[in-house]
Amino acid sequence: MSSQTKPTRPKAKPTPLAAPTAPTKEDLARYRENLQGEIDAIALYSLLVKKETSQTLKDFYTRMARVEQVHADVWSGLLEDAGVNTKGMHPAWRARALMFIARHFGPSLVVPTIAEREAADEAMYDEQPEALARMPGDERSHARLFRELAQGRGVEGGTIARIEGRHRGSGGNQLRAAVLGANDGLISNLSLSMGVAGASGGGHAVLVAGFAGLLAGALSMAIGEWLSVQSARELYAHQVRVEREELLMVPDEEEEELTLIYQSKGLTAEQARVMSKSIVGGDLGRAVDTLAREELGIDPDALGGSAWVAASTSFLLFALGAIVPLAPFIFASGMAAVVASIVVSAMALMVVGAAITIVTGSSVLLTGGRQVLLGMVAASITFGLGTIVGHAVG
Predict the structure, then answer these.
(1) Distance between CA 264 and CA 256 in Å, rounded?
(2) Burial code of 162-196, b = ≥16 C-beta within 10 A, e = fewer?
(3) Which CATH code, of 1.10.1330, 3.40.50, 3.90.20, 1.20.1260, is assigned to 25-164?
(4) What is the per-residue pLDDT across 364-394, written as a single tens digit (0 to 9) for each?
(5) Residues 65-118: pLDDT tens digits?
(6) Would you kindly state where each structural domain of the chain is located, as residue ranges?
(7) DSSP string spanning 292-308?
């Protein structure tokens, strides 16, 4: 071999495995859709880096953003090679909505939604020949990492509690729950108001019945949520107490269970046994905390969240939706108020449908139109029944 130093070749930019020489309009639309998704992800992850307090999660989101930037470079390069200007592309409205929520209310409301979207998109590059060889694996890795986070593995328990907002066994996606809570109030009180309006001709009886329905529905939702969360907290507290008693009475069995859990996570039998023995044989509080997280999937510090916070949130969300169809009757009466109530309720239902698409990623027109249609069908049925009952009573 020559002693002379070989010239260093400049690093080549990542290129697709099989980029077409002349992309069709459909190809360009697909490239643009892919690039938009990557731009959305980069913006979201970059914001989460700023909002998170855990350095572990900061590093995680930073790595995710870097990977998505590599993907974005591929699609922007293909588009620019075809003469398409990508400089003006910015995060889409769904991503901006999630960023607004994360910025003002914290990451815990949006991270479950992002995790669901990553899971839904994990195979998106499998059949795209222009994708880099690493890209399908990257998407699967992202989905897997989010699943690990959601299941309480790979990050400390307090971090997982912030990601989930509440324990995974006691509730689902908070953003979806918030939207559906407002939707329940809107449709139920719209139906009630239209029924009374049909019977009374849109008089002040609608206000009385509507506010009674608002209060009754909101209280019912709040009490139900309080009972649900409080019952979950009591169950988790009981399970933690049982775990503590078992640790005192049969520490060998608890050590064996913890060993099997660590082996299932990839440790060797010897590594798992050493770690389990160290935990079980150490501080009792630390051992109970570890067993609760690893064996039961419970965060002893959170125990499913605050029942009072859950109840007040449910009350406010239901009331927020329920006030919409009543608002016109505060300022008017008769058919003018009925028509105005239907119009503002239809607009609100469209907004609810659009909000749902933040979680599902489906078409705004399709989902929003479906919400409006269902709401109007319910209002029409109750208005018709109210009219019949009103005439019969009269």
Answers:
(1) 12
(2) bbbbbbbebbebbbbbbbbbbbbbbbbbbbbbbbb
(3) 1.20.1260
(4) 888 889 999 999 999 999 999 988 988 887 6
(5) 888 999 999 999 999 988 889 888 999 988 898 899 888 888 877 877 777 788
(6) 25-164, 174-230+306-393, 233-296
(7) IIIII---TTTTT--HH
